[in-house]
Amino acid sequence: MPLQLASGHRVGALSLLSPTPRTWSGRDRLVAQEVAATVVTELELVAASAEVRSSLTRLELALEAGSVGIWERDLDTGRVWWDERNAAIFGEPGPVEFPSDEALRDRIHPDDHAAVADAMRTALAGNGEFVAEMRVLRTDGGQRWTVSRGRVLRDALGAPPPGWSAPTVDVTAARGGDAAPAGRRPARGGDRRGLAVELANVTEMVDLAEVALRGCRAVLGASGSALAVFDSATGELLLHLTRGAGRAVEAGADVELPTRGVVLPLDDELPTQYVARHGEPVLLADRAEAVARFPQMAEVGDLVGVGAVAALPLRVEGRLRGSFVAVWPDGREFSGDDVGMLEALTAQIGLSVSRLHADAQRDAAVAALTLANTRLQLLAEVGRVLAGTLDIDQQLDRLAELVVPALGDWCWVVVTDEQGRMRRVASAHSDRARREELEAYVRAMVAGMSEDAAPRVVARTGRPVVVTQLDTAYVERALAPTRRRARCWPG
Asked: Which of 172, 225, 456, 490 lies deepest, with the highest CB count within 10 Å?
């Protein structure tokens, strides 16, 4: 049997050998196909897991290079945990665990205690986002400026928070080592390090678009941004907007944007698509230059007030993932520092895109493997029923019970006699309270189905039939005129 991915690419073959001659039945072939599908999903899961490990390794290197540590606190027990990088910021060998947060008070500058406590209270009472700047007191007597940006960890129902998680960024170099009060805003270097933490924490593309825009505003004063990413499953180029931009578009155009992103045409009409396709950065200093190179920018500029444009490719390990575009309302001459910061930001965004893709591929592979295993178990159970001692009617009753709800909400089995007349032999519904209703439906169908009914078509042609929409129109076609009823199927 061929081992073929969903994309159509063949990666190998499954060979089944028998020590004695045998005839392969249709059921044998069906089981072999299911086994082959399971092997393919196992291979896809291994590949996705490898991609996740690679993505996590790149993320780990990025966090290490940016002097980023992680700390967590259990709000039920009060215990606090630091990873190795967080402990290193405090001058400790790590990782480290503390019995309570009281042990940490002496590690934070006294002048910053009130600000940190206030940030925690605000996060717990509000949206759960925690931002605090503080000076930490190292064990060697030194001091370091840090910024923590994290969130409260709530359970699936949003119940009282079970824990707290926050990255710590060492921004001492960005502050020039000064000892100004903690309320002062960190320099752009600190903003970039804090941004790296936020990008490392995103779990959805829409969150990535939000963080990218905030970062571009913070370090370069951009007024807007766009994130276009190739879908790893379909190859489509999807535009991901911030929530605010999405609401504005929906209100202005009276449309509902798809949650997975807006599909962009694969052409060179606008910087977003051009850069995503060719991998070449585009810097447009003003509206005139933008329109001269991309005439459609005239219409875009009228809609969103675009002056200068910077579009850079999202590339990870040589693979083009999409593009990131930042815009300014007025003209802008891009300096070398501007370009360097844009490239650094785009590289961080690319890492996050790669991680999100790897997570999605792993989840899809796990789901496919689970489905394949479920089908194999179903086939095995079907085989046991058919090989048992039950009579044919009992076997069919048992088979109907097996496929509900594994393959559907309800099912029915009919056979034809020597004269071609249909008779019901088995049925099952996932809701036992509705089984009598199903029985009535089956009796009505068996007694009066037309030649257009699916069972008649299957019996006549010997081929399967899939009815994608079981609506009133289908029922009217499937029932003879004298048998049509206003309500003919159980929900």
From this structure: 225
